[in-house]
Design a protein that fits this description.
Length: 210
Amino acid sequence: MKTRKICGPLILLLCASHVLAQAPKGAGECRIRPGTLCADLNLNGMNMRDASLANSQFTRSSMVAVNLHGADLSEANLQEARLTGADLGEAVLDDADMAGSTLAGANLADAEMNGANLRNALMHRVRAQDAGLRGTDLFGANLSQADFTDARMQRASFRGANLTGTVLRGANLRGADFTNANLTDADLRGANLELATFSGANTSTCIGCR
């Protein structure tokens, strides 16, 4: 078993290749398990693949390049968490609160983020092909150059969001709200735009917008 310092100079958190396959890891108030409280911690590079972390709290924690592939983070609190370059592929983030989080360059392919709060999140260059974001709140989010090819985003709110160069080819955007969004150079070819709203949006150089 490998010991890694991740929670500051006074706290050691043990982790193996599959965190929850072993006894609960951690010290003090930081335990990697469902409902865990790990706010304001340094979890950079930690392997939590397939972990069960529903209803957990990682508020303001640094989780750069963390491996959460296939993890259950439904209803988790990740407000202002730093998840730059994180692997969240196939993860479940339904109804998670990720307002103000940083997900730049993260892998979200095949993830389920239905009903999640991603208001003002930084999602520059995320890879979210085939992801589920039904009813997700992306108000004011920076989604520039992100890839949402074939994503399921019915009734998602993009109000005031930055979608410069964003790829939404083949995405299901039925009932989506793009009010006041910036869609400069966005690619919506083949997307389902039935009942979608573009009031006040910048669509002058958008491909596939209407």
